[in-house]
């Protein structure tokens, strides 16, 4: 990769390819310079898009998981997920939610995965999940199937409604 200058003085990026060959006993070099401005612009837009997605993902107040659907292995979690469940990010990555002890009931896992496989999404599903210290958390989960690099994943967001449930119970009892 190099830079060339147009007649008007504008500098633009080029990719240069050269080939050495012999013809009639002479050693010749053939060089081709190709303008790669458009490719570099697309690559920069992709980098910015990825950076924006990462910032949105990490700064979301909702706990978010990215899970490889077939293996059920957690590929990524955000900081809110780490805070909600008390696990270090590294302790969750590569494990299933069951292996990490996040589901309080196997039946919730089965329901969620069944709905995702049938309809591609699940919205506002109430379930109980487990904090690292063993506490049970009342949560609402929404998830949808995504294709990432030719593999099916589901992106799940989880909201803790434990305090809301306690307040509702207190109001009902009073």
What is the gist of this entry?
The protein is built from 5 helices and 8 strands. It has helices at residues 37-59, 79-85, 89-92, 106-119, 162-173, and strands at 2-5, 11-23, 26-35, 63-68, 74-77, 121-130, 136-148, 151-160.
Task: Describe the protein in words.
It contains five helices and eight strands. The chain has 174 residues and is α+β, with helices and mostly antiparallel strands. The strands form two sheets. Strands 5-4-8-7-6 form a five-stranded antiparallel beta sheet, sandwiched between helices.
- Quick one: how many beta strands? 8
Compute the CA-based radius of gyration: 26 Å
**Strand arrangement, largest sheet?**
5-4-8-7-6
Give, in order, the helices and strands. Answer: EEEHEEHHHEEEH
What is the makeup of the main sheet? Answer: 5 strands, antiparallel
Overall morphology: elongated
Strand content: 35-45%
Distance between the termini: 74 Å
- Structural class designation: alpha+beta
Multimeric state of these chains?
A: single chain
Q: Overall mean pLDDT score?
A: 93
Task: Walk me through the topology.
Blueprint: E1 2-5, E2 11-23, E3 26-35, H1 37-59, E4 63-68, E5 74-77, H2 79-85, H3 89-92, H4 106-119, E6 121-130, E7 136-148, E8 151-160, H5 162-173
Antiparallel strand pairs: 1-2, 2-3, 4-5, 4-8, 6-7, 7-8
Describe the structure using short key phrases.
five-stranded antiparallel sheet; 5 helices; three-stranded antiparallel sheet; 174 residues; alpha+beta
